[in-house]
Write a structure and sequence with these properties.
The protein has 10 helices and 9 strands. By secondary structure, the chain is of the alpha/beta class.
């Protein structure tokens, strides 16, 4: 069993420390990729998670990775093929809802820093055993929210998290105030309706509001 390298973990942590919120993006049209990335980066949120939930996602990653100042990752990594395609598209990191040995091995083989998902103490410990000190807590709200993450963190202080799932501007601070949280993932920054409407000014404003209100 191979272990996640310290260099990969350092990279994952650095990405999570770029801003308090990592926008979780579902982009259906590659034509919107560049403008969306620019709006979010200008608004102060440079770490972008493009979920592999649309046919356009890999092309979107390829376009967004050309935008200066951004760090683009691929979300919803589930299979080794997802990992290989994301890396080939230009993703600089990966995010997964959970973690399997096959997925972890693929990320190691492709040298793609991974933010793997965990929802329980056992899952977090198993990932820690494999060298993952930075993890995604998912689904955050459905798994008990900030109180649950605080409780899991007490006996596992060496793990830091990026909670994702059900997080909004109104509850993000509950998570970000925890000592074991680096950032939070949020889809409210660039909701489908605003992206489809190409409302880049509104998205930039949402990004700026999140950055300003959630940065201590």
């Amino acid at each position: 069993m191979t272990h996640n390298s310290e260099a990969a973990q350092k990279k994952t942590r650095e990405v999570c420390e770029l801003a308090p919120i990592m926008p979780v993006l579902v982009v259906r049209d590659v034509a919107n990729a560049t403008a969306l990335a620019k709006a979010l980066i200008t608004g102060g949120l440079p770490a972008l998670e493009v979920t592999l939930r649309t046919p356009a996602a890999l092309d979107v990653i390829a376009e967004m990775s050309k935008v200066p100042g951004g760090v683009v990752g691929a979300g919803t990594l589930v299979t080794p093929q997802d990992v290989r395609q994301a890396k080939a598209a230009g993703a600089m990191f990966g995010v997964s809802p959970g973690a399997t040995d096959a997925l972890i091995e693929a990320c190691l083989a492709e040298d793609l820093p991974l933010l793997p998902g965990a929802a329980t103490a056992s899952e977090a410990m198993r990932l820690l055993e494999r060298g993952f000190t930075t993890q995604k807590f998912f689904p955050a709200e459905a798994s008990g929210g900030a109180p649950a993450l605080k409780a899991i963190g007490a006996p596992l202080p060496q793990i830091h998290f990026c909670p994702t799932g059900g997080i909004s501007l109104s509850n993000a601070r509950d998570y970000l105030s925890l000592s074991n949280v680096l950032c939070a993932g949020g889809s409210w920054i660039a909701p489908d309706a605003l992206v489809s409407a190409q409302a880049w000014d509104e998205i930039e404003a949402l990004a700026r509001e999140a950055k300003q209100r959630l940065t201590d």
